[in-house]
Specification:
Length: 161
């Protein structure tokens, strides 16, 4: 299996996992977060699909702005997570594992890649996966102390590239 096929499978698996979790949870905020992550994984799949088809994909980051917007909406609504739910915390922790595996894979493949276009795409996706990891970590922190966290949710450390 080549790097593109493996990456596409990994992104498709991530999308499936997050969509499944969005459909399972009863918490509307968690549903929105998991849908956002599923949509992101789909975008990554599409980027790899474009490069496989010989096209030059548009590498435009969207996740930081979308995550910020979602948190701002939740803050305006008074927060969508009312209390920590062990099941959702387990899903978030598993999401961290998925994102960590992705990050490691992209770093390894970036170092091996000879094609500049592929190398650029792998670097871009790795940075996006870093944001997903930070986002999931922040959600776990939020769950542990929701009101304080929402009041401080600035995401000023998330640069748009």
């Amino acid at each position: 299996m080549d790097v593109l096929e493996y990456a596409m499978n990994m992104e498709r698996d991530g999308e499936s996992y997050y969509r499944e979790q969005a459909g399972r949870v009863k918490n509307p905020g968690a549903e929105r977060f998991f849908t956002l992550l599923a949509d992101e994984e789909r975008r990554h799949y599409d980027l790899f699909s474009e490069i496989r088809a010989g096209k030059t994909p548009q590498l435009t980051p969207t996740f930081g702005a979308e995550a910020r917007s979602l948190f701002e909406t939740l803050k305006a609504e008074g927060g969508a997570f009312r209390k920590a739910d062990a099941e959702i915390l387990d899903v978030l922790s598993h999401g961290l594992e998925i994102e960590n595996r992705s990050i490691k894979f992209y770093v390894e493949e970036m170092q091996k890649a000879e094609d500049p276009g592929l190398k650029e795409l792998l670097f871009f996706i790795k940075r996006e996966e870093d944001k997903h990891y930070s986002f999931l970590s922040a959600l776990i922190d939020y769950y542990m102390k929701p009101q304080i966290w929402l009041e401080q949710a600035e995401f000023s450390h998330w640069e748009e590239y």
